[in-house]
Amino acid sequence: MSDPRLASLVAVVCSLSAVPSFAAESSYVYCDNGLRCFKAPCPSNSALDLATGAIIKGVSIDPSGLPQAGKAMTDLSAALYAGKIVVRGSIEHRTQTITGKEYNLPWLVATRIVRTAKDSERKHCSSH
């Protein structure tokens, strides 16, 4: 005789393994880091993960997930460039072809603007 609880547990585990994995959201300070290059991909932007303290170098930002109010900020690009705001989002890797070569590059997918960044959170930025 089979145990119905075991069958239920197996069904739940199987269904969970079919769920796509999503990167956990965190808060980030994204900005220009002052590095310049002559060949793409260029690591001139970075993001500080406020939860771990890790700096993700060479990251691009995708602000398309921001609410309309965030996207409508007149100085959104300038605020991001200078590291003036903290955004909520996740890092995902996307394959891009640059000059005929494929690269797997990090992207910060922003979902909302959290607050103004503190000076101590902007130390990796060139404008600090």
Order of helices and strands: HEEEEHHEE
Mean pLDDT value:
82
Strand content: 35-45%
Low-confidence stretches: 3-22
Shape: globular
Radius of gyration: 19 Å
Number of helices: 3
> What is the structural class?
alpha+beta
Strand order of the largest sheet: 3-2-1-5-6-4
Question: Share of helix among residues?
Answer: 10-25%
Number of strands: 6
- Major sheet attributes: 6 strands, mixed
C-alpha termini separation:
69 Å
Describe the overall structure.
Strands 3-2-1-5-6-4 form a six-stranded mixed sheet, with helices on one face. Helices cover 20% and strands 38% of the residues. The N and C termini lie far apart (69 Å). The relative contact order is 0.22. It contains three helices and six strands, in the order αββββααββ. The model is unreliable at 3-22 (pLDDT under 50). Strand 5 (85-98) and strand 6 (101-116) form a beta hairpin. With 128 residues, it is α+β, with helices and mostly antiparallel strands. The radius of gyration is 19 Å and the shape is globular. It has helices at 4-17, 68-71, 76-82, and strands spanning 26-32, 45-49, 55-57, 60-62, 85-98, 101-116.
In short:
The chain has 128 residues and is of the alpha+beta class. The protein is built from three helices and six strands; from the N terminus they run αββββααββ.
Blueprint of the fold:
Elements: H1 4-17, E1 26-32, E2 45-49, E3 55-57, E4 60-62, H2 68-71, H3 76-82, E5 85-98, E6 101-116
